[in-house]
């Protein structure tokens, strides 16, 4: 689910940016009532070296410097050490995730090497495993999802930031953000009840009869289930995420830029589309990357809708298989055979690496833009 | 701030208290049975009846697929794992503490959804043609191979949409057993497995989802057990057996299969052998199977006690026709079974010999 | 007056039309974006309303097929159990780690920890499931060997919550004005006193928001549950061991939607509606908390 973690952008500007830069521990707090010399706010007045007041100040400064270089009181050290344990938990968690994945995937990594990535055979019976089919399937679903979601999300974000009437802005923004929190199983159920019959009986035959006459890609069998169903539903899930993050970048465009554009005689649309939008391209890229990260890890909605067939899709109506659906469908059975489970975990490792890289990229891009606040969703399911 | 902290703490405390009190008043023992989706209808009926006559026990039944049933029972994740597939030699070697007990008798049948063909029309199918359909080599319902076996049926020119299982399935095991034994193509290229590499089609989680998909998709073909066919009044195909007869699966025809199999004196004591195809007889269904409950002998003693009680109930009262035949299962043929069952149960109840009466 | 040199008054027709069209386009896009989401809620209500009632929320499923009679009490109670367990793990660990990141944020180790915590936010749910399987459930290897149980699943969900709580705690602490901290230190308070008496209480609504955000994320998770708990049609007596699995709202929807029975589909939609309503209420609660704390901070200056 994508609920934005950042709080209101106003507090962003005032306190978070300037004050958060300086961490607490540069202040060496001592339990005796002496002042700390390294804290900027606690500095005495700048020394005036020429007057006799200046020499007194100098000796005060000397004392203060002496105090600040004394050992930090033991109770403070203990406290700092205790805090460290908290950080170690996080490190341990990360090590566990990476460790379990690597260790359990090791038999498969050593057996198949790099060719695992482009082998398309997956035959547990004969112990031949290859990731290609699932990687392709994952990218098909994510691709369709993004193709569908990005234009709608960006245009919606423009609506949220510029075009919606002032009295409506709060309501529609909140609406969009709340819709981002709907669990993915609900989307999956909706997909089965609503999307599959719609695609099977109307959309897919339509595509086959129109575009399908010219391009084979659109000329597949209408099944309802498949990459189109999964891609569209994942796309619907990703729209609120991309829209709200893009909206947040748009809101940060400085007023001067907007007013300069108007001063040069632009219409509203010209300002929005040709000035504001290009100004937030890094933010858009960041939000798209985050959406990609969310889509790629999506399991439940895809599993219910994609058709779970290990073949590479040849048409838009075709079925496919993604890494996450395969794992959810077969993993606790695969453990009866060490190589089988290792191959599946290696698939998971590939997914993990892609997700980590993509999510970090998106987050770093957006952090640069938003000045230190965590923007974007912490979703997925 | 204080209010928030206090109310949050209060809410959390209330939650914990309510949960604990709820849990405390819950049942004295719990059993979780999951696995075979084929056995699922019978298990639900059994669970309801057992819980009525044994208040204080709660049985949770889930259909996750025989593969999950075997694997999770072997790994101690669930109490009883249900499977349509017997334990092959490799599995037995790998999981020595896993005991498999036959508890029911069922089959795998081919279901279909052909527009224009009513339920009363009988469709015949043989192994080689079926294999070619599931390999994607026969793609339309009015293919000449299908018409050759069914001269009196008018098929539409409709694409065959193959529906198979996505999860590791015992139903798939029994089905591919039939295909492997009747079609050399299938045996060479794909083989018999709980989770084979399906060349075509789309996959669904559980027989329940297969039924739903076949019912909703015109032109679909799929495979599920008799229990599901009875529960949803589906029509199934008549499969060709070893002697050349086309037989529809029903309690009667799978009972015949069971009798035919058990007459073989070399039939193993633990029932771990396929009874697909290699049976003679006019009314013998060629794709029948035993249903097994897998139990790890390393379960804690208290749980094991309840498990044994449940198993004994299933093998005695549970075999009554009002449970089995009503849901589309054949009761275990008891006469040849008793000494073998005694042996298996002794494995679970060392030191006790149990008297099992025929369930009916 | 050189009319042919001066630009025409106002905008060209082309620009006027383009302005209007593009504006309308954004509105259309917004409607397109929001409609499917609202449609989901509407469809869930429409198809599921037949099953909604108080007894739906308070009775256990039964009948044949199981679930056709009764309600979703096992799912609601099970989800609650899982959330409590997940919070019991993630709140102390997350707040602790957040404190560390805030206090020591200049050290390289803290920077590395923050990076790793953010990386953990991006781990796909199936990987958490695999980790939970090996660490908590399965009886081979070095894990806890708890089987498919509520404890195993709850702790796995706790794992998922930890990076969320950590991150939000750190941010909430950063939001506490420097002047407060420095003032307390100037008065001679030790860092521990500052943390316990000042920083945490001031950041408590932010931390609360983070916990609720984590719960929001974890409520709808199904994939990790498949590997560590699966499902229970009742409420278990114990939360550990092969018979210790709990029900869960999301899993319930998943299971019911697979059945061919139309009656179970109705219940699935009703359960989906219940879950969505819970999520939306939680979301609103988070917003109110954040809004309330901002108002408070503004008043405090």
Summary tags:
heterotrimer; B: 360 residues; alpha/beta; 8-stranded mixed sheet; 3-stranded mixed sheet; 41% helix; globular; C: 301 residues; mainly alpha; MetI-like fold; 11 helices; 0% strand; flat
Radius of gyration of chain A: 28 Å
Query: Which ranges of chain A are low-confidence, i.e. pLDDT below 50, for 5 or more consecutive residues?
Result: 1-49, 372-381
Overall number of strands of chain B = 11
Identify the biggest protein-protein contact and residues per side.
A-C, 117 and 121 residues
Strand order of the largest sheet of chain B: 2-1-3-11-4-8-6-7
| Gyration radius over CA of chain B | 22 Å
> What is the CA-CA span between the terminal residues of chain A?
7 Å
Give the SSE string of chain A. Answer: HHHHHHHHHHHHH
The CATH top-level class label of the largest domain in chain A: Mainly Alpha
CATH H level, superfamily name of the largest domain in chain A? MetI-like
Characterization of this structure:
Chain A is mainly alpha-helical and 381 residues long. In chain A, 67% of the residues lie in helices and 0% in strands. Chain A folds into 2 domains: 2-97, no CATH class; 118-370, MetI-like (MetI-like fold, Orthogonal Bundle). Chain A is flat and about 95 Å long. With 360 residues, chain B is α/β, with parallel strands linked by helices. The N and C termini of chain C lie far apart (59 Å). Chain C has a single domain (76-300), classed as MetI-like (MetI-like fold, Orthogonal Bundle). Chain C is mainly alpha-helical. Chains in contact: A-B, A-C, B-C. Chains A and C meet through helix 1, helix 3, helix 4, helix 5 and helix 6 of A and helix 1, helix 3, helix 4, helix 5 and helix 6 of C.
How does the SSE layout of this entry go?
The complex is a heterotrimer of chains A (381), B (360) and C (301).
Chain A: H1 9-19, H2 52-69, H3 74-112, H4 132-163, H5 166-179, H6 184-209, H7 227-251, H8 255-263, H9 268-279, H10 281-297, H11 300-305, H12 323-334, H13 338-370
Helix pairs in contact in A: 3-13, 4-7, 4-10, 5-7, 6-7, 7-10, 8-9, 10-13, 12-13
Chain B: H1 2-24, E1 29-35, H2 40-53, E2 57-63, H3 66-74, E3 80-83, H4 89-94, E4 98-113, E5 124-125, H5 127-134, H6 144-149, E6 161-165, H7 170-182, H8 184-189, E7 202-204, H9 206-216, E8 220-225, H10 226-232, E9 238-240, E10 246-247, H11 251-262, E11 288-296, H12 301-315, H13 324-327, H14 334-348
Parallel strand pairs in B: 1-2, 1-3, 5-9, 6-7, 6-8
Antiparallel strand pairs in B: 3-11, 4-8, 4-11, 9-10
Helix pairs in contact in B: 5-7
Chain C: H1 13-48, H2 54-58, H3 73-103, H4 108-121, H5 125-137, H6 150-174, H7 178-186, H8 191-219, H9 223-228, H10 249-258, H11 262-300
Helix pairs in contact in C: 1-11, 3-6, 3-8, 3-10, 4-6, 5-6, 6-8, 7-8, 8-11, 10-11
